[in-house]
Amino acid sequence: MSSRNKQWLLASRPTGPVEESNFRLVEQEVPALRDGELLVRVHYLSLDPYMRGRMDDAKSYAASQPLGEVMIGGTVGEVVDSRNPNWPKGELVVGMGGWQEFHVTDGKGLIKAQRGLPESVYLGAVGMPGITAWYGLFQIGKPKAGETVVVSAASGAVGSVVGQLAKLRGCRAVGIAGGPAKCAHVVNDLGFDACVDYKSEDFRQRFKEAVPDGIDVLFENVGGTVFDTSLARMNAFGRVALCGLIAGYGGQDVSLKNARSMLVNRLLVQGFIVVEHLEHWPEAMKELGAAVATGKIKYRETIAQGIEAAPRAFIGLLRGENLGKQLVKMGGD
Length: 333
Ligand SMILES: NC(=O)c1ccc[n+]([C@@H]2O[C@H](COP(=O)([O-])OP(=O)(O)OC[C@H]3O[C@@H](n4cnc5c(N)ncnc54)[C@H](OP(=O)(O)O)[C@@H]3O)[C@@H](O)[C@H]2O)c1
Fold this sequence. Notes:
Elements: E1 4-10, E2 23-29, E3 38-46, H1 50-55, E4 75-82, E5 92-95, E6 102-105, E7 111-112, H2 128-141, E8 148-152, H3 157-168, E9 172-177, H4 180-188, E10 194-197, H5 203-210, E11 215-220, H6 224-231, E12 234-242, H7 260-264, E13 268-271, H8 281-293, E14 301-305, H9 310-318, E15 325-329
Parallel strand pairs: 8-9, 8-11, 9-10, 11-12, 12-13, 14-15
Antiparallel strand pairs: 1-2, 3-4, 3-6, 3-15, 4-5, 5-7
The structure holds NADP nicotinamide-adenine-dinucleotide phosphate.
């Protein structure tokens, strides 16, 4: 086993779009374990939009990422050494190992991954993004059969699960995504009823045609124009699960023109942060795991090879270059 550990540190805070120079690659010895600790060899690192917010030094719901420290990130990997009887060698574990090849932990906050499903799904459809979809849709959106559910960033890790869960509950699922290829995937592979390309010139008109009965549940991942276009088509007493505003993560304006719809349609608009609802995670993981195992929920992954590729893949995620869950596979092919 290699005793060297490659790590990406946050070197500087972005002043505009994220650049590879905002990160620094270092290599360290894997430290010796103390009593109660275990060593995990990371197999997959998850790259997620929230990391962009952590790179800034602005007030938010979570503390910003300190400069000079290993970038925060969800991981799945195998326990390769242990001085903690609760986490023996060979166990497959999901945790917050960060952008590095190995991590040492006392086991707090780790989740055991069941063997049987591909381990990477614990960072996607059966992990944090899938649980985000499950929580926002069911605990806030509360869709009823026959209702119309709209989700933006529909081909992504969260959005793809939202639409498929909505279909399983008997709803009409409509996605919004960037480009014809992503929209075709959302309809043809994931089974949404429709998907509209927000980059197309006639986006507003095509979106109106895709939701002929209006919108009952909006799962918002993007903000800005995309959010505004959906707000204008909400039905009375509609519910908006406000999950993300990725259109503004680089500091862009995400102001709303159609805020009036919230009053006129007596909307429920609820922002949420999935890690504040850990009590729902076991139930959600059970339902999502069963749905993935039986093929009722399909998922796509974009996998960058090797720890060195992490910054470039993260920048790609923020530019919409990923299809489905963006991961980094450690050790290359
Ligand atoms: N509240 C929570 O607890 C929670 C938890 C997890 C995720 N989230 C949020 O959920 C959203 C989706 O996350 P994810 O992990 O599933 O990411 P993702 O959808 O897999 O990847 C991000 C996607 O966002 C879209 N995007 C990027 N910039 C955009 C822009 N300027 N305008 C419109 N779309 C843009 C791109 O798709 P297109 O090519 O289609 O534009 C890109 O592929 C994010 O806003 C994230 O912050 C929130």
